[in-house]
Amino acid sequence: MFEDVMAWSKGSKLNKIVSKETLNHAELLYLASGVNPYEDTPKAYMKAYKSLGIDLFGRVPEKNKTHSLPKGVVGEDEPSGYRKSYLGFYETFSRSRYPFQDVDEFLEQTFFNLDYRKLVTPVPHQFDAEEIRRKTALGRESGLYYYMFYTTLYMWGVEWLGPEIFLMAIALDAERVNEFFLREAFEQTKKAVLLLCETDNPFVFLHDDLSDARGPVCSHVWYENYIFPKYKELFRIVHDKGKKVIFTIDGNCEPLLQDLLDCGVDGIMPETPATDFDAILKKFEGKFIIGGMNGKVLCNGTPREVIYETEAVLSKTRGNKGFALSAPCGLHGTIPLENLEAYFDTRAKYGVNPENWRKIKR
Question: What pLDDT, on the 0 to 100 scale, is given for residue 121?
Answer without folding.
Answer: 87
